[in-house]
Specification:
heterodimer, A: about 100 residues, mainly alpha, extended, B: about 220 residues, 10 helices
Chain lengths: ~100, ~220
């Protein structure tokens, strides 16, 4: 079943790129469309962070939990403030959570 | 003069490719920790070839979301490549099969290295050098990360926390305006509110409505 998501997302992502390369530039003149498209990644990434870091599956379905993942996220934020490159930010988040779990 | 400048653009593009490609390692490791196998992980990097969508798909899968919701979340994040394509197309000026092939390379990095160019030659050099080097290194790095991550317990090495860190790093450069920061907080709040009583993946999709609403409410305003 995961293959469906992989192929569907893969083909769809390509078509989204091809669509952009094929439509006239004036499509972007529509203010609602342009603004929505600009805000979409911001909203989705923020929602993904929130769910990824705070949600956990429990017996009664997903619920909110504060654990080592939140510490990992905060450490990643500090690394970003210090202008660390992507790979360092990701490793800092992982190491922080892993070390906290060792305690 | 012109050849030297083109050479510099190509060199810069390859440098961006090396920097970006290395984080394909983290995608590979995170993806197998999320429940995709090595083949699915590599297929996703080859087919989708856009980091944020790939991380999003893996994130939804790891949270137990359905394949449909996982693919939709990835696709919604992929819409920004449509915008890049609209900007890039007139600059590189390719038609026919060249455009069909070049479209696959339309990503954050290749767009950024193209839109600032003033001539077609430089635009094409920036686009191709960046797009191709990211493509090759991203896919190689994905394989390395996936092989390294397979068999690891994700919690022991904090790979579950790595996903949140990766999303934050992708979001960070977009938080330059106060409107974006407000919208980000709203999106996170909507998603967290829905977590306890909707299926996995749905809270994130529901947050996309915030983008639509804010896009409508703030139409015609200048960028803050």
């Amino acid at each position: 079943m995961i293959w469906l998501a992989v192929v569907g997302c893969g083909v769809g992502c390509y078509l989204l790129k091809l669509g952009g390369m094929s439509v006239p530039e004036k499509v972007l003149a529509h203010p609602v469309l342009r603004r929505t498209a600009e805000l979409l990644p911001v909203v989705l990434l923020a929602a993904l962070i929130a769910v990824q870091v705070l949600a956990a599956s429990g017996p009664g379905g997903p619920r909110l939990v504060v654990d080592a993942r939140l510490a990992g996220l905060l450490a990643a934020g500090v690394a970003l403030l210090l202008r660390a490159p992507f790979i360092v930010v990701v490793c800092v988040a992982a190491l922080t959570a892993a070390l906290l779990r060792l305690l | 003069m012109a050849p030297a400048t083109t050479r510099r653009i190509v060199r810069d593009g390859i440098a961006v490719g090396i920097a970006t490609g290395t984080y394909g390692v983290s995608f590979g490791a995170v993806s197998v920790a999320s429940g995709l196998d090595v083949w699915q992980t590599c297929a996703l990097s080859l087919l989708a070839f856009t980091g944020a969508s790939q991380f999003a798909l893996a994130g939804v899968v790891s949270a137990g979301g359905t394949p449909l919701v996982a693919a939709l979340t990835g696709l919604l994040l992929g819409t920004r490549n449509t915008l890049y394509g609209i900007r890039v197309a007139p600059l590189v000026g390719w038609r026919g099969w060249r455009r069909v092939a070049a479209s696959h390379l339309v990503i954050d990095e290749s767009a950024a290295m193209t839109v600032t160019r003033t001539s077609r030659e430089h635009a094409r050099a920036g686009f191709l050098a960046t797009g191709l080097s990211v493509f090759v290194l991203w896919n190689l790095a994905t394989l390395v990360g996936a092989l390294a991550g397979a068999g690891l317990d994700p919690r022991t090495y904090g790979l579950d926390a790595a996903v949140g860190g990766a999303f934050l790093a992708l979001l960070w450069p977009r938080l330059h305006s106060s409107r974006h920061r407000v919208v980000a907080l709203l999106g996170a709040a909507v998603a967290l509110t829905l977590v306890s009583f909707t299926p996995s993946g749905v809270p994130v999709l529901a947050a996309a409505v915030v983008a639509l609403g804010m896009g409508y409410l703030t139409r015609g305003e200048d960028d803050a």
